[in-house]
Amino acid sequence: MAAANPARARFGAWLAAARLNAGYLTQQAWADALNGLAGAATLTRAEVGRWERGVRVPDAWLGLIAESLNVPLADLAAAAARVRRARPRPSASVGGPPWRGIASAESTTAAWSADAIGILGPIQDGASPGRSSGLSGAPLEDLLVYLDEQWHALVKADNLLGPRHALIGVSSHLAILQELAAEISETKRPAVIGLAARYAESAAWLYEDSDDPSAAARWTTQAMEWAYQAHDDVMLAWTLFRRSQQAAASGHHAEALGLAQAARRDDEELPGPMRAAVLVHEATVRAARGGSAESLCLLDGAHALASTDVAGDARYGHGSYCTPAYIELQRGRCYLASGRAHAAIDQYERALPALPPVYRRDRAAGQVSLAVAYARAGHPDQAAAAALEALPIAQATGSGRIHAGITRLADTLRPQASVSEVRALLDTLDAGAA
């Protein structure tokens, strides 16, 4: 196996986070924008993917990248030069895939900062074997307490602002944890990689919400590996649940059901909100497989375990988003899966106002599901209006997942473009794509 180059991987995935910050929700959208600036259609989505995975440094495109991301070319070129000089280092994940580090910037805004680029420096300077980056000089317990608190803050940032703002912070702290794990003693490593697993799972979710399922799957696998090494059975169960969600999103419902059942195999050991989240997900999978009665029973059981988190910072652990209102939103989803569009409409309209304000993307996702229910019930005007209500949140947060749902709905409504609300939705989407 070739030696990993963490600096190149971090730089590449910083590009991914910066792309989202600049408003390009997909790699293809960014490739199209760069081709437009170049005046030629020579750049492919696959090549952008190689940049973001750290396979290649985009030297020939740095000027246009700086222009498209609105960052200083001199700083970008200097960072790229440091990446090229960095030496590879063996992966810390022995026997598994090399660590795929991502963005190393602390800013949670769209702006490029000198600090963001500067973070790459110490890691590269200490990349040669036998040299320490200096992280191990800090008190380990203090670092872990700090990073644990920052994880809660980043969860809240994600709920309020979405992946465009949270991904850079998650990436920066993952880089610190990876560097720390490579330096500390074997006895202390489980505590570090246990926290790294939590951050990796957050990275997986942020990429999933950005509509990048391949990156989401990689980070879920990494989180699972780290959770296993750390002997963290609770986190391991959560990664099985997340893989189940990803399988369901791909239409592999039998696999999704098996993974969900595996996640709650030892559910007495899991915190209540986590158990509730797994039950709710299993309910939606069963509904998609035609088991509507079973799904509704599972939702009823989840209520006894529901979270009371209204702050959106996961203080109750994974699954804290699974509030009573969220469970009732998923009841609407189960109705929709079983062909009961009118029941789904009633359910969504009751549940949406009850969501805690911090879960604004859950509200937007619910609005999209409500729009789908209206469309299936034969109300294209109300469907388009509901989708339009969700669109600003998708655009502001960089939620490619929600934006893709709105786009799919708009495509189904296109034959009814003579309806004024549908026309408004199509025109708004077309204007945003221009």
From TrEMBL:
The lineage of its organism: Bacteria, Bacillati, Actinomycetota, Actinomycetes, Cryptosporangiales. This is HTH cro/C1-type domain-containing protein. Gene3D superfamilies: lambda repressor-like DNA-binding domains, Tetratricopeptide repeat domain. TPR repeats lie at residues 325-358. Keywords: TPR repeat. Residues 37-76 form the HTH cro/C1-type domain.
